[in-house]
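Input set for joint prediction.
Command: fold jointly, output tokens.
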Amino acid sequence: MKSKKVVYNSFIYIILIIVSITMLIPFVWMFLTAFKTTAETMQVDPFVIVPKVWQTQNFGNVIKAMDFVKLYANTLGMVALRILFAIATATLSGYAFARLQFPGKRFMFALVLLQMMIPVQIFIIPQYVMVSKMHMTNTIWGLLFPGIVTAFGTFLLRQAYMQLPRDLEEAARLDGCNIPQTFLFIMAPLTKSAMVALGIFTAVFAYKDLMWPMIVCPDNRATTLASALAKMNGQYQQKYPELMMAALISCVPMIIIYIFFQKQFIEGIATSGGKL
Amino acid sequence: MKKVTSKERSEFLWGWLFILPTMIGLIVLNIYPMIDTIKQSFYKTGDFGKGNKFVGLANYEKVFGDSEVWQALANTAKYAIVEVPFSIVIALLLAVFLNKKLKGRDAFRTIFFLPMVVAPAAIAMVWKWLYNSNFGLINNTFNIKVNWISDPKIAIFSIAVIGIWSVLGYNMVLFLAGLQEVPRDYYEAASLDGANEWQQLKNITIPLISPTIFFVVVTRIIAAMQVFDLIYMLIDLNNPAWKKTESLVFLFYKYSFEQSKKGYGATVVVVLLAVILILTVIQLIGQKKWVHYE
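tokens >
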């Protein structure tokens, strides 16, 4: 019985390790290629794994060629604005939908659900037309635009407020708090973990998004990391060290943040169940 | 009675005030655009993207007769048929393995989830390099010569493999959350009755987490039908597999923004919406047969 269990457990470990290697190899290969010369990448010898001389200048060259400082500033700016807007608007509406009674509530909530169920591409053409009419193409406001409000965040925060006990609120009201005071001082601080989840979700979604920045910020200096990679992909063709260096530069900071806050990341994305 | 009325009045006032920013945003950014896109699908965009002419159902007739649209639908379906089942079955098995008290459980979870925090644009670039027919790691390691992403017969499946690799960890994390709800004593009782691991998986785990599986299947199919980033990054216009990999969203992007035919692009996306709705309704009906809610 015992030995059977050992065999079974080793079998599980072998599978988990094989899958782990499969998950990691692309990252390792990206890293190694980023420091090779183009000639080295074209050697048809699979056993040249590590670069002979680490081409650290690839880093500086790529950063300069694609102006990664600017790309990072754009991406960070957009992500920060989107998080700010998402949390501010969704906290308010989530609370109202969860805890306040008012006519028209059900219909308005149906609109929130409708937005969540519809593929985003259906909104894109008119959104783009609006942005271009307001002369916001190639600006950070254009990048922010579709993320000003969030149906998904509203839904997520509503769930969080619904799980809080009712007595808290009633006690606050009896103590003379009006609705905004109850919301701001008693209830909102209790939904911090839902806000963190929404913040992480918003950040990951915005950072990964490709189509919107390509459409609305075609200019290299105004766009995000993801959209700049797409451009570079077309221009650099077979120069894999440069391409891998760009990919590396664009994802390493996110990976480092993820490793430090993995619990919040995994739980934030999993509990929110959002579509990424 | 008067007190109740003032409470009602203040809830009415504050309720609307609180939802107002979100609702104005949703109406301007989503509800109006949705109606506008549907409207646009009945119009033809003039040359250089200027001017709109009402053409009734002409765009739809054109879409249904357009072999490129049918091919894109087939490509999208092929992608989804590979990506969805494999990513779900593998993720479910991994979740079952990790649900045991194993050493290094958290490390495995962290590794599997990693692709979820990386932009698909970067992932696609790395895989394009791995798949490279002359110098790619895959062909070199196995000493083969497969044109992974330029052979029209297999390119879409190679892309689906990247899709599986990317979402595996995400699906697994959702399953792990579902598995936490299954009481441990069920398994102990089953072991005492002599049920092996496979029987436990089939008779306990899967029925008990069927609501989670259902949620993952529905959301994965919706997401897979919208595949764009990977294909856009991997396939350029010189690629011989281009026609056999174009997805519906790719086509929407091409028509609407590269060729400025917004009316026709809108029609393609409305068709996509219809396809997704039909698939979702079928699943909602079908779930009664296999999803067990407590």
